[in-house]
């Protein structure tokens, strides 16, 4: 089942998504706030996991395409973090887009839809989003889609070494409005 916004389609992954997704995951600019860029095999394995999640659960990190052109522009959706922290277990809203898709409001549009889908359609009591303290672009998306931040929730990512400049993370939350 495809999900649609005014300009975007959130859908299941296709084999044709693999090459542009791998290029995006190899970009030092796109992956600036991640510990490492992905190899092609790591990127393909990520696609396999995301597609299996959507097949099994009916939701996950969907491939994102422009409705007008069919161009693949990354992913947006919901996932379950695989680490232990004070706010887990939980569901996270996340996104990753190539640089050419930045600055058009696509991440906010798709993330807002995914957030509403999780809260309204799936009936989740809360959805979180988190990123490195230095990733102000993603924090701006979190703010634009109506998530709230309490500095007391911020945390050191347990999968990153204490010497990593990416270890400090901010946490944003969203709950149903009614």
TrEMBL record:
InterPro entries in alphabetical order: Acyl_CoA_acyltransferase, GNAT_dom, N-acetyltransferase
Database matches in SUPFAM superfamilies: Acyl-CoA N-acyltransferases (Nat)
PANTHER family the UniProt entry points to: GNAT FAMILY, PUTATIVE (AFU_ORTHOLOGUE AFUA_3G00765)-RELATED-RELATED, N-ACETYLTRANSFERASE DOMAIN-CONTAINING PROTEIN
Coiled-coil stretches: none
Residue span(s) of domain N-acetyltransferase: 8-177
The protein's name in its UniProt record: GNAT family N-acetyltransferase
Transmembrane segments: none
Top-level taxonomic group: Bacteria
GO molecular function, one term: acyltransferase activity, transferring groups other than amino-acyl groups
